[in-house]
What does this fold into?
Amino acid sequence: MIEKNNTSPHILNTASNLFGICFIVLTSLKILKMQGETLVDEFTTGAMILFMMSCILSFLSIRSKRNSSLYYETLAEILFLIGLFCLFATTLFITFNVIR
It folds into this structure.
């Protein structure tokens, strides 16, 4: 049997926090009436979807007792990393939009 990496609790905690931050960014864009002007809202929405999927897979990995636990954990890590790249792109878009 393959040993679990046990990063699922950490991914679940961090991905849920980042999901909340993305939600705040989207709400701020709506309040500032900036949605649709830049790519920030699209990348933030993509990051939110990836972080939520990562949360779900991390939870399934924690609750699973079979070999599928490692599969769920690996998928959660990959989606989490892609979500981080989306959030990085969002940060760049916000930074360059503020500088202008």
